[in-house]
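3.2 Worked example (two chains)
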Amino acid sequence: MSEPLYDLVVTGATALTGAPASQTIENAVIAVSQGRFARVEAARPGEAPPPALKTLHLPGRVVTPGLVNVHTHANLSLVRGVAEDLGFAPAYTPGIPQGHMVTPEEAYAIARLGALEALLFGSTLINDTFVHADIVTPAMADIGLRVWSCGRIHDVDFSGVSVGRWDYVDAIGERTLAEAIELAERYDGKSNGRIGVQLAAHAPDTCSTPFLRRIARAAEETGLRVTTHLSQSKIEVARIRERDGKSPPELLDELGLLNDRLTAAHCIHVSDTDIARIGRAGIHVAHIAKGNATGATIAPTHKLRAAGARLALGTDNMHADMVEVMRWALAVGRIQLGAVTPDWQPETVFEMATMAGARAMGLQDEIGSIEIGKRADFVAFDFRQPHLTPAINPLGNLVHVAQGRDVEIVAVDGELMVENGRPTKVDADAIRREAAVAIEALWKRARGN
C-alpha cells in the first residue's frame, strides 16, 4: 500500500515536540495532512522523504510547537518604551494614551501591528483584550494566527481611573458585557476554529462587586472561560480591601470566579492565604515574567505552583516576544529560590509557553505540542547563526540565547503564515506605516496637542 500524499512535509530539523514521550527528535520528519500532524518521527537512514505537495528541508533549524500567549494587549504597543518606566499599568497612568481615547480606526491599525509582531516572534495563538474587539478580532486573525479576543469588561468609568476616581456606572457594565457576549456569538469558533472568545473581566477593582457576580453568571450561562487581571498592583489590593473587606482572590472565590476555567494575569501581591486559595481553585496564572520585573515586581511562582496553580506565560504590554518571556520566567524563578534547581529548568518554562498555555485556553487536545492528530501549529527557529552555535542542547539554546527574531517559519493548521521571517498573508511595511500614523495621533491627543 502506497503512502498517502501529504500536504506538507518538514525534514532535517531538530524537533522539540513538547510531547512527554518524544521531547526531542533529531533529524525529524513531520508530515501534515488536512491541517493536522499526521507523522512525527525521526528520519530512517536511507529512506526518502514521504511524498508531499510541499516539502521543506530545514537542516540547522529547530522546530517547536506554536507558542501560546495567554495574556496580551496588542494595542498597547502604542506606549512601548514609555509605560515601562512609569511604574503602573497604562490604564492607571495619567499622561499617556488611554483605551477610551482610541478610535475604532486606530484600534484596527495598532492591533494589526501587535498581532503581526506576535506572529513573527512565533506565537500561533494570542489571548488579547482591549477595546473595539468587534473590529480588531477579525483584523488580527487575518494576519494568520489564532486570536482569542474580547473587549475589556468593566463598569468603572475608565476616564477617571488614572486620576484616582472610581465611579461605577451600571450602563457601562451592561454595555461591555453585552458586547462581549455578542462578540462570542458572532466569532467564537469561526475561521476554522482560529477565533475564540474568553470573557475579559478587566480586574476586581475596575468591576463593582455586583457586576463581578453578573460576569460569573454570564460565564456559567454561556460556557465561556474567563480571563482577568488579579492582584496586579497594591492599588487594586487596597481598593478591594477598602471596598469589600477582602483580598482580590477571596472576593473572586466568594463570587464563583476563582476556578479552573479562570486565567488570571500577574498574581503578584498575594498573601500565603491567597496563594493557598488560588492553588485549591486550580486557576491558570498568566505569569508576566518580563513585564512584572520591569515594574520591580515578581510573582511568587514557586509558591503558586506548589499550591496547585497552573502557570502559563503571557507578554502583556509593550512587546510580544514569548522567547524572551521564557528566559525571564526562568531567571526570576531562580532569583526567588537563590539557586538553580532540577525542577526549574528550560523545559519548565517551555512547557508554560506551549502545553500549559493550551490548557489555559481549553485547547490542550488541539494544540500545544507536535503530536499526531493535533492541529499543525509549529515554528522553525534558524539556529544557523553565531549566537545559536553550538546547539549541544537545542532547548537550552532556545530559552537562554534565542530571540523571537530568530523565527524563520510559522505555520498554523499547516499553512505557512511566515516564510523566511516575513508574513505571507499581509504587507508588513504597510501595517507598520498605518499603525505609526494612528499612534502618533493618539499621543498628540493624550498630550493635548
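3.2.1 Second chain
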Amino acid sequence: MQRVRITERARWRARAEEAGFRFHTIDGQPYWDETAYYAFTLRQIEQDIEDPSAELHQMALALMDEVVDSEALMQRLAIPSHYRDWIAESWRQRQPHLYGRLDLAYDGSGPAKLYELNYDTPTSLFEASFFQWQWLEEQRNAGRLPAHADQFNAIHEALVDRFGELASRLPPPLYFSAVGSSQEDVGTVEYLRDCAAQANLHGQGIAIEDIGLSEDGRFTALDDTVIGTLFKLYPLEDLMAEEFGRALPASGVQLLEPAWKAVLSNKGILPLLWERHRGHPNLLESHFDEGGALGAGWVRKPLFSREGANIEMHLADGSTQRSEGPYDGPSIIQQAHPLTRFEGGYPLIGSWVVGDHACGIGIREDDSAITRDSARFVPHAIIDEAPTQIYV
C-alpha cells in the first residue's frame, strides 16, 4: 500500500457537478481529493481486506440471535426498553437490509483491524461507488495510470442487484428520506434512489422532517399517503430518542436499514465480538467502559457516536488526543491501534458490504489520527506490482 501523487483531471469539478456530486467541496475545503491515490496489490485487497470484511460481517450477524433474546445484552447496549421487542421481531422476521460499512485500520502490513461497524447510516457511498470508478477510467485513458490498473469497486452493481432482490420484500410505497438541509445526505439518498430505479424499484424522496403521523399512528408523506417502507439516512438511536419515534413499533412501517441494525451499529458490538472471538487477528481488544484502561494504550468511544466525535485516545507513549462532539452516555474502551501517517495524512479504509457481500472500499484521509467529518476522500487503485515511479 502506497500513497502516490497524480495529476488531477482538468475538469473533475465539472464532472462532479454533472454527476450530482455537489458536496465535493465543503465549507470551502476539499472533500474529494484526487491529487493522490492509494495503490494496493491484488493480494492485499483480496486477502487483507475483502476476505476479512466478509468474515467480520458474518461474525456480527451471528451475534444477533443471542442479543435479541437477552434483556441483559439489550440493556448493556443501552437500547431503550420501549423498542427492544420491535427490534427483536425485526430480526426474527429477517427484515432485509441493504448495506453497511466496516471501518478498518490498514497500511499494507499486518492484518486489517476493525475500528467499528457503520451499519445504520453509512455515508461516503456515492464517491466510493460511482465517482471513484469514473476517476479510475479517466486516469487510465489519460495515461496517468497504467492500463492494467483496477479497483476494488463493484459497489454500484451490487446495490442495483440488491435492490432487485429487495423489490418483492419491501411493503409499498417506498420512500427515501434524509435531513433536507444536508447536501451530502440528500445526495447519497438520491444516488440510492437511482440505484433502486435501475432495478425497477421506484421510490419517492421526502425530507425526514416532512414525514407526518396519522391519527392512527401511521407514518405519512405530505399528501397523507401511508409510507410502507422508509429508507432513512437518519440515525435510528436519534429517532428513538425523539417523541415522534415512539410511534415506530406500532406504526407498521418497515425501515431500511431495518430496526435490528440498531444492534450492529452500536459500538457495544465490539466488546461482544471480542468476548466471543478473543485474539481474532482482525479484532482489537474491546470492553465496556467501567472506568478502567488497557495497558498498551486505549481509545474511549461512546456507544452512540458518529464522524469521529467524542473520541478520547490515550497512546502507549503517554500522548493523548480528544475530539469534541455532542455524544455522551455509556462508552467502550478499545485497544489503541493508531492509523499510520502517510504523506497526506491518516487514511482509514471503509469496506463496503452490500447485502452480505464485501464489494468495494473507499478511503478517507484526515490530518488527525481521529477520522472526523472533515476528512478528505482519496481514491484508490489496484496495481499488481507496487508502483516504481510517480505517475504525473
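3.3 Remarks
The mean pLDDT is 94.
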